[in-house]
Amino acid sequence: MTRYVRQATNADLPAMMTIIAQGRQALAAEQIPQWQGAYPQAADIQADITAKRAWLLIVDGKIAGTAALLTTPDPNYRQIYHGNWAGNANATYTSIHRIAIASGYHGQHLADFYFSNLMTLSYQAGFRQIRVDTHRLNQRMQHIITKAGFDYRGVVYMANDATDQRNAYQVML
């Protein structure tokens, strides 16, 4: 099996949206409210592609995963509750968002490989910490995140909405 990551292009948008739709369905099946509204929509994914922060997981020549690797501060991470960020809270960091694996690839531990590659890209770009969040009910993603070496750091709110909280994680490189 050949596996690698590459930056997404405009031509990849339909495949990426199919994977996002599959992720939305999987979350709904587990009664997790994450991604059950309009977000993420094609405009969000297109913005990732345009900003060159969209990365694809390729398996045997096919798109098996999509993720955004942001290199600018996430406003949702400005304030953390019931915990704190490790190290200098104002240091630069990357953050991983909108990550999903295509349904036909579940159970192959590809998320481990994907996270490892996103960590390598972060390190090569000069960043020494990465942050990520997921819904408190998303046990599968919490397991993947901690297995990748991230530590639970506290709770963050999406757009300062206390009803839309996420568990926040961080890894120091």
UniProtKB/TrEMBL annotation:
It comes from the Bacteria. GO terms for molecular function: acyltransferase activity. Its EC number is 2.3.1.-. Gene3D superfamilies: 3.40.630.30. Residues 3-173 form the N-acetyltransferase domain. The keyword Acyltransferase applies. InterPro entries: Acyl_CoA_acyltransferase, GNAT_dom. It holds the Pfam family Acetyltransf_1. Keywords: Acyltransferase, Transferase. This is GNAT family N-acetyltransferase. It comes from Lactiplantibacillus brownii.
